[in-house]
Each structure stands twice: as C-alpha cells, then as structure tokens.
Write a structure and sequence with these properties.
Blueprint (H helix, E strand, L loop, with lengths): L12 H5 L1 H13 L5 H4 L3 H8 L3 H22 L8 H21 L3 H30 L4 H9 L1 H20 L1 H23 L3 H13 L18 H5 L2 H22 L1 H8 L3 H6 L1 H22 L10 H12 L4 H29 L4 H28 L4 H26 L7
Length: 424
C-alpha cells in the first residue's frame, strides 16, 4: 500500500519509513538540473559565438525547444503510469545522458534546437516529473513532506551545478564539458537510482493491492471523496481551469526574469556579481518554503495553500517594479524562492489528493506541460516587449498585477475544491 506513518503530524517519522524512495526522488530531481533553464543559459555566450547567432536567435531556439517539449510531455508523461518505475527511470536518465552528448557534438543551429529539446524534455520535463510523481503516488499521509524532501534536489542543483559547470568548462572547454555531464548521469546517477529502486516491485505490489481494495477512495482533508480520475475526466472539471491562472504565473514570471537577467541587471544599474551571489538566498528560501509547505499540506491539505501561493511572487514583481536599490536584489530572490518552494510542493501533492493516484502521471503531465509551455513563452514575450521599448519596471508591475488576479482566482479555486460533495 502507499507509504503511511503512524501519525501524519510527527514531522520526521516518514523519513524512516522508505528512505530509499525519498533518496531516489531527491537524486532524480537533482539530476534534472542538467536540463533546467539556469544551466543551459550558462552556455549562451559560447553557443552564440560557436554558431554566430544573436541573443534573439538563441532565445528563439530555446523557446522552440521548450514549446516542443511541453507538447510532447502531454503524451510522454503518461507512460510513467504504464511502465515499471525502474525501467522508466533507466530510460529517462539514460536518454538525458545521450542528450548531453548531442549538445556536445551539435554541428549547427538546427541540431542545437534538437539538443535543447532533448535536454528540456528529459531533464526539466521527465526527470522532474518522475521525482514528484513517485513520491505523490507511494506516500499518503506524509505526501507533502515526501514531495518537499525529494524536491530539495532542485535548489541543491541550482546552487552547485552552475559553479561546477564553470570549473569544468574552464578546464576542458564548453563542448567537452557536456561529455562530462553525460558521464555523471550514465555512470553515477543512473546506477545509483536503480540501486535505490531495487525493491520497488514489493512497494508497487502493495500499492496495487491498496488501490484495488478501494481504500484509495477515502475522504480527503477537504471533506470530499477522492475517486480515481482519469485525464479525460480531469479536463472536463471546470475547477482545473479556475486553478490555471495561479499555477502558470510562477513559471512564466521567474523564467522570464531569469532568462533576461543580464538586461535586467544592466537596466537597474546593479552589479552582476551581486545578482549571481543572491542566488544563494533564492536557494535557501526555496528550501525553507519546500519543507514548511510540506508540513502544512500534510496537516491542513493542499487546497488551503492556494490563497498564499502567489503572495511572495507578487512582492517580487513590485520590488523590481518600484525599487532600484541593490537591496531589492535580495528581496526579489528571497520572495521568488519562497514561491518556487511553495509551488513545487503544492503541485506534487495536490493532484494526488484531489484526483487520485491511479492515473497520476497522466494527469500531472497535462498540468506540467502547461507550466513548461508558460516558461517557454515568457522569454519571447518579455523579449519582444523589451524590443518595443517597454521598461523592465513596467513589465514587472504588469506581472505583479497579474499575480493579484491569480490570488483572487486561487481563493475561488480553494472554495471550489473544499466543497464536501464529490466533484462533477
């Protein structure tokens, strides 16, 4: 059956129940860093020089690759429901390793798009999807804390991998560095993941028996009965669409500002080294929010997180919009990191709590692909706005106003999801 603990309110009990599963989720989320925006963007200068392309052309390649990944995720993400987790993980991690090799040997602009598509699909897409889905499916009373613990791999990767990549590139060159990243994935992360999953057949067998018994159609913290929705049913649920404005905002806003961070820092007259150093604050606040949100979700339910989901990000946007003081850098990073941590834990637990776990991969792949789509559009939309002469402050304030709208829709969504009757 899904992992449960004697008391859902003993904060650390769940760690002792299935530490291998937690370690697997953490390792896979860490490995997803090789396909994340912040990591690929580190090579933008070398890539532009190698292929004689402009910032706009590089941004277009990135957006095309990410858009294609978003659309494919709707199909590819559902296969985690059909395949043994060990076989699935082997395929995803191995293909991410091969994606790094494609990036290393890419000869021209068009193959570059393919390489970035593979990195986005396997890394940011399926590796992250695997980490969160595995925790949400096999944990029950400690689902929020399990998702939060596994998600700690993301901020750790963002704190370690950029510095590591910089050192590797300095020694071997930017192309050769991607061979190193491939070796880490295939020779270290892959075998470690399979070792951590070596008893997974027992875990999954218990889950299937628990699911077949009907015990998963239990009463959730909102008072409603959880049935096992499939993706088609979820897409007919109007509550899903009420939820979307608040879910899509963080991916769009943070990706856009981070992608155009050099322009942002120049426009503000800030020091780029101070901006880079402030990512430590981003990672630290992310970790605190991850763990805190996991505890709150396990005690009060994920829907009760909705009203506060976008409050820190709203502060982030208005800080950029109204302040040029260098202290705003740290305020932006801290509040943006808090929202990132809250969202990561929320989306890991929410779908399982209200739509069940039987088709969890298929359902999460839809929402996750929409978030990836949002992150793909923001560099282009913000880039065009900047080209048209819209100031970075105006863009930030517009994003802040949208966040206020998202808070209102989130409050309404919470009331809909907490109705005691079964959803239609």
């Amino acid at each position: 059956m899904p992992v449960a603990i004697s008391s859902p309110y003993r904060v650390f009990d769940f760690i002792r129940v299935d530490p291998r599963l937690l370690a697997f989720g953490f390792l896979v989320s860490f490995g997803s860093g090789f396909g994340q925006t912040y990591f690929i963007a580190l090579f933008s200068g070398q890539i532009r020089d190698a292929f004689s392309i402009t910032n706009g052309e590089f941004g277009a390649a990135y957006s095309i690759a990410t858009l294609a990944s978003a659309f494919l995720l709707i199909w590819s993400g559902r296969w985690i429901d059909q395949l043994d987790l060990r076989k699935w993980s082997f395929g995803v991690i191995f293909l991410l390793g091969l994606s790094c090799i494609v990036m290393a040997i890419t000869p021209d602009y068009w193959v570059l798009i393919v390489a970035m598509f593979l990195l986005r699909q396997m890394g940011q897409g399926l590796m992250s999807h695997t980490s969160i889905t595995s925790q949400a499916r096999y944990y029950e009373s400690a689902r929020g804390r399990a998702v939060a613990t596994a998600s700690l791999g993301h901020p750790l990767a963002s704190a370690i991998l950029p510095l590591f990549a910089t050192v590797v590139v300095a020694f071997v060159g930017w192309r050769e560095s991607w061979f190193v990243f491939s070796a880490i994935l295939i020779l270290a992360i892959l075998p470690a993941s399979l070792w951590l999953l070596r008893s997974h057949d027992v875990r999954h067998s218990r889950y299937l028996k628990h699911s077949a018994s009907g015990k998963d159609s239990k009463t959730n913290l909102g008072g409603g009965t959880v049935r096992q929705w499939d993706r088609r049913e979820m897409l007919r649920d109007t509550r899903f669409y009420v939820l979307l404005p608040s879910l899509l905002a963080p991916a769009f806003i943070t990706t856009g500002f981070f992608f155009h961070q050099v322009f942002l820092v120049d426009a503000k007259g800030w020091n780029l080294e101070v901006w880079a150093a402030a990512f430590i604050a981003y990672s630290a606040s992310n970790v605190v929010a991850l763990l805190g949100t996991g505890i709150v979700i396990d005690r009060y339910g994920s829907a009760n997180i909705l009203p506060v989901l976008l409050i820190p990000l709203t502060i982030s946007c208005f800080l950029l919009g109204f302040s040029d003081h260098s202290a705003a850098i740290w305020g932006f990073m801290v509040t943006a990191g808090i929202t990132a941590g809250i969202v990561a834990t929320f989306i890991g637990a929410f779908w399982a709590e209200f739509y069940g776990t039987r088709h969890l991969g298929s359902i999460r792949s839809v929402s996750f692909s929409l978030m990836v789509l949002s992150s793909a559009l923001s560099p282009v939309v913000m880039g065009v706005a900047l080209d048209w002469g819209v100031s970075i402050e105006a863009i930030a304030n517009i994003c802040g106003v949208y966040c206020l709208f998202g808070i209102l829709t989130a409050i309404y969504a919470r009331s809909r999801f907490l109705k005691p009757q079964n959803p239609i």
